[in-house]
Amino acid sequence: MFRMMRVLVLSLMCLMLGWGAASAGETIVIKGSTTVLPVAQAAAEAYMKKHPEVNISLSGGGSGNGIKALIDGSTDIANASRFIKGKEIKLAMEKGVYPVPHRVAIDAIVPIVHPENPVKDLTIEQMSLIYQGKIRNWKEVGGKDKRIVVVSRDTSSGTYEVWAKKVLHKAKVTPRAQLQASNGAIVQVISKNRYAIGYIGLGYLNRSVKTIKVSGIEATVQTALSGTYPIARPLFMFTDGWPKGTVSDFINFVVSPEGQGIVKKEGFVPLY
């Protein structure tokens, strides 16, 4: 009898502990764009301080992979540095997923070179020809007599998609280009190669690289917000349908004055 009661008590304790673990908190999964990653990470840290019962799991991988994860149900929020494509919307709806965009920031895509590169300004046309492989030497654009090393994002990147549209006008990148999986990787490559050129989101700029003006216009918060900088774009968080509960609360936090302060602190452009 005593033994049976002991087993019953232990079983009840296990059930109570299991219930406590399940109800102790909620997890939000966020995947996608490496450009949006610094904003999402800083916002997640600030949000979890306010809501210790919430855990936010965050990873990069590119806008395309984030949207793919939203479609297959493996993420709650998909970060994207581009708008969702028509074929992605079609695939999502076929699977009963209804992607809803939430604009969370504005970004400028900035061409960068090594600090010792004397070139300071390039036109859209010059950059297009460089990335197509039709301009191959820096002397053709006012630099040294050295071969240009082209560094680009891979095709799963939303940053690549916007660059391809606004700079390449959908022409193909030269097959000699070095493809990198993240903004941070491009910064690292450019900082170590005097003759390389790449492009990154505004929030990834640091002193190890030098920015190039585009047709005389410098990428800044002001020029991106006003629309005078020619390679600016909105940054998004996508959800399956209109968000509810904690996911809705987190996105509302990102677009709140406090969240937009985080956007600005991370080097991107707040919505207002």
Describe this structure in words.
The structure is a single chain. This protein has helices at 2-23, 37-50, 63-71, 86-94, 124-132, 158-166, 183-191, 221-226, 245-255, 257-265, and strands at 26-32, 54-61, 77-80, 99-113, 121-122, 149-153, 178-180, 196-201, 210-211, 213-214, 232-240. The protein has 272 residues and is of the alpha/beta class. It folds into 2 domains: 26-105 and 234-265, Periplasmic binding protein-like II (D-Maltodextrin-Binding Protein, domain 2, 3-Layer(aba) Sandwich); 107-226, D-Maltodextrin-Binding Protein, domain 2, CATH 3.40.190.10. Strand 1 (26-32), helix 2 (37-50) and strand 2 (54-61) form a beta-alpha-beta unit. Helix 9 (245-255) crosses helix 10 (257-265). The radius of gyration is 23 Å and the shape is globular.
Salient structural properties:
272 residues; alpha/beta; D-Maltodextrin-Binding Protein, domain 2; 2 domains; 9-stranded mixed beta sheet; two-stranded parallel ribbon; 10 helices; 11 strands; globular; disordered N terminus
* Biggest sheet features: 9 strands, mixed
Strand content bin = 15-25%
Oligomer: single chain
Q: Any idea what the radius of gyration is?
A: 23 Å
CATH uppermost class of the largest domain: Alpha Beta
Q: What's the end-to-end separation, in Å? A: 70 Å
The CATH architecture of the largest domain would be 3-Layer(aba) Sandwich
Overall helicity: 25-40%
CATH topology of the largest domain: D-Maltodextrin-Binding Protein, domain 2
Number of strands: 11
Provide the CATH superfamily of the largest domain.
Periplasmic binding protein-like II
How confident is the prediction overall: mean pLDDT? 91
